[in-house]
What does this fold into?
Amino acid sequence: MSEHGRMHLPDVADGSASRPGVANAQHRYPRVTSFRTRRTTLSAAQQATWDRLWPELGTHARDAGGPAPRLNTEAWFKRRAPVVVEIGCGAGTSTLAMAKAEPDLDVVAVEVYRRGLAQLLSGIDRDGVSNIRLVRGDGVDVLAHMFGPDSLTGVRVFFPDPWPKARHHKRRLLQPATVALIADRLHTGGVLHVATDHAGYAEHIAEVGDAEPRLRRVAATDTLPISVERPVTKYENKAQHAGSAVTELLWEKRP
It folds into this structure.
């Protein structure tokens, strides 16, 4: 996904974590996804920044033998702070701006494509931002394996791929299984913030989010633990000029 380009997910029958106390979550909540890797070339400057910063600020969702271990965000960020996960950060335009505006939050930005992560690393380096870390991989893998229940203050999903053809709807990221996983990972009062410019997908997301019993719909004007003000990105500007309205959807985890 991105503001940017859309996020396509790995072509594996992976699953989300179950509700607390339910074992074998990956089998309980199967999903159908699709992803094609891209061979991308970084500029010399991007490669130099990657080589210098990735070992400290980045990690992978999977190693050669399977899923990555649970993240210790306090050790990684070198402090204890509320954690927000952004799934599909793209080039990181929103990630960078929102992290700069909320230095008291720690942001874990997840993206499949190396070029987008490299662009975000360059922005972090340029602006001296210290509260962003990067994970390369599938956002559902990250939530399922690298975070525990009740560990997140927020999850952001901006402009996920709408898979507009009916036969591809099963590939959409925000299905009941994924929303259930997000609800599990949010702590009480934590926020799921979704933005989409696809009207049909907005309706689908609204139905799925409202059907999750641990979430309740909230408004941007409510008192929330994270900001829901996004910068308008180049991708969003193009969508608006093409006549696509952006829908913002917000839920809070119930007590």
The CA atoms of residues 7 and 247 lie 18 Å apart. The two ends are 31 Å apart (CA to CA). Strands lie at 58-60, 62-63, 66-67, 83-87, 106-111, 132-136, 152-158, 186-196, 215-217, 247-253.
